Amino acid sequence: MKDIGEQHFTQEINQVLFRVYNQFWPHQESAARVLAAELLMKSHPTVETIGEIISSLSIQEQPEISTLVLKKLYNSMQESSTVRSCVTDLLKNTTFGNYYNLAQNGSSSSVINELQATYDANVTYGINVEMRPTGMLKRTSFDLSMLGNGENAHLMSMSLFVEGFGLTDEEQKENPEEHSAGMQLSILGVHLRPYIFFTGTGELMGLIWSGAGNNPTPAVQANFLIIDQSHTVVLQNGIHVDLNLKGALSADISGSVEVSMWNKNAHAVVKNKGSLLVNGFCRVDTSFVESHVDFGMGGGSVLDMVVDLDFAKKPMAMCLQVEQPPFIFRHNIRKTETIPGTQLLIKTVKRRSMYFPGKSFNLFRKNSDSCRKMLQPKKHKSFW
């Protein structure tokens, strides 16, 4: 919506979005329906718009979509005071605030939490998980955004999608899909070409027996120049001050997957590595004194997204984990002062290191319950 502009979402566009969400055309993709509902929540929401979305949740033809739309509505309440006031007024009426609308039994979920908070900006992460009615994972995404000064900057979005697995009998008859899986990335608002892991059961079995997916496979390796600034400031006394600032961001995203046909489980890891380096100097050069200040700051961090699947029983069990190992951020400042024509030299160095402990992120309740069952140590029965 930020790229298109809110002014283009007119009443006619909202009517088309309602048709997409209400599945006016047959065989509407679930991702398109959820996206249409999310756009309606963000494009000048009104009580009538939010009320129609809440009323549609009582239709349980596709419970996973209804559950995901309800979670999206909760997220919009956190971000927008307009949506929050509309929902608060509507839930006072039992027509909207009832069990059939708000008690969804699907496994899909969507959460937005804070990743890192600073004085100037906050970095938030969002997790979206869409499941099939059979309990099979369909799509999951991880989003990073930066909020500051009333602006929302999209940093990165990574999504994993699975097609053709866990289809119901009706879905196989109406819209059969070929077995495939892949990853889609978006960095700084630029969408990259999807990375396809396999297409068809033949390629899937080839990957399983060869073990090619066990080793980390790089998906994106890139360097970004985020700051490049140089200018001169003339002070009131006529002294010139030169300022130069450069910053670079390095990203490395890779993934690996292990599938065991004997134990009927799978383990996938997506590593998001990032490093930030900012260097600059400030110089005052006159005929009687020279002052030079160099400063640099930087650090590297890793964000791991781990997915465990157990398809030995039905419904399939899934555990999604997001972890961040500990890392150190360093900030160094060096000041040099000299007087031309003399041997006077003054150097001052200050070093500062900030340690950030490792942590794991709480996603949603059903995922925590599933992880507790899958990851807890199993008790082996005694032979005696």
TrEMBL record:
InterPro entries: MTP_lip-bd, MTTP. One of its GO terms (cellular component) is endoplasmic reticulum. It is found in: Endoplasmic reticulum. Residues 87-377 form the MTP large subunit lipid-binding domain. Keywords: Endoplasmic reticulum, Signal, Transport. One of its GO terms (molecular function) is phospholipid transporter activity. This is Microsomal triglyceride transfer protein large subunit. It comes from Caerostris extrusa (Bark spider). The lineage of its organism: Eukaryota, Metazoa, Ecdysozoa, Arthropoda, Chelicerata. The gene is mttp_1.
